[in-house]
Amino acid sequence: MRPLAVIGNVNVDLILGPAEPWPKAGTEIIVDHDELRVGGSAGNAALAWKALGVDFDIAANSGTDEFGRWLRESFGSQAAKWPIRPEGTTLSVGITHPDGERTFFDARSPAAVFARLRVCRP
Fold it and tell me: What is the pTM of this model?
């Protein structure tokens, strides 16, 4: 049987929080939690399949920066054919709220533009 396949964005998520109350402009707050993890819809689907022991292929791209290197290492040989764009890798910062909801700030990166994604066949 052929493996499942996912194509799409894989980015770095930096999760911080909880933030209460929301900080005023020009101020700083300290939060209790921080986590750097693989994110993006394709990245999250692939990690869920990996945790379930499902065979899968993933096609995505990344930038030339340290975040791109880290993402490719996170997927090992499955990322060997990912195109590497000469830009920064997309970073999303998620701020958690006390009720569990999150607010995301995404850095738009040309590496995330899907029109530039080249699908790699295994």
Answer: 0.79
